[in-house]
Write a structure and sequence with these properties.
Layout lengths: L1 H11 L6 H17 L6 H25 L14 H4 L4 H19 L4 H23 L4 H9 L1 H10 L4 H24 L1 H7 L4 H5 L3 H22 L4 H22 L4 H23 L2
Amino acid sequence: MLKNKISAYFRLMRFHKPIGILLFVWPPLWALWIAGQGKPQLKYVIIFILGAIIMRSAGCVINDIADRKFDKFVKRTAMRPLTTGEISLREAIILFSILLILALILVLQLNLFSIVLAVITLILSCLYPFTKRWISCPQLFLGLAVATSVPMAFAAELNHLTLTCGLIYLIALIWPVMYDTQYAMVDREDDLKINIKSTAILFGKYDVLIISLLQILILILLMILGLILKSGLNYFLISILGSAVLFLVQYYLISDRNPDRCFKAFMNNQWVGLVILLGIVLM
């Protein structure tokens, strides 16, 4: 019984699907390495990795709390612990509160500037699940929540923001909008039935085109970043060329809008974040 309950909690936090943690952790690591000029403080690396794990877990819990009445109508989410009754609403709220306390303990290790930005991140993360009922582009809120970790990292390392921080922030904002649109393409038909909004629905027949344009914009911003930082060949070959190849793979996968292939394209983004980081580390 206890084993089953622990398993349900782990599934509620999506520990069985670690890609979400990776997608949350790459942007602050990009920022830390650049802000720290290739030598970020180990303390901050550990704090931001743990923070990504905790906040992604908290995001999944609040998402399932918000969607508990809708998930049963979507094939992909019908077996989530809150939907099946394995975990009660009260238990989910308690778990969410515990995760927020853990996040607070981590954030208090940072300076005041970073703490203020962390509060903004928390607000955006909590709002995101509910925006799927209010606005046609909820993915923008996800992008804002993910991207705020970039100025947080700069604030931790430098206690101020820079032009390069702004560029990384834009990349970290556009990237989730792009990959979460791919993710939303998986559920588009179900979402239409239950009136859940997404950029996949908003973009309609132009979804693949807009995703491709967002990918091109990311590559342009990465190139500008490299030129400003006077990066070596490694950065351009690994971060930019590597991302371009992965984006081409994603285009191939989503071109026919098959839900399974769109999900594979979404999953492919874990490697995009990695190659960008590798290029930055080796620049």
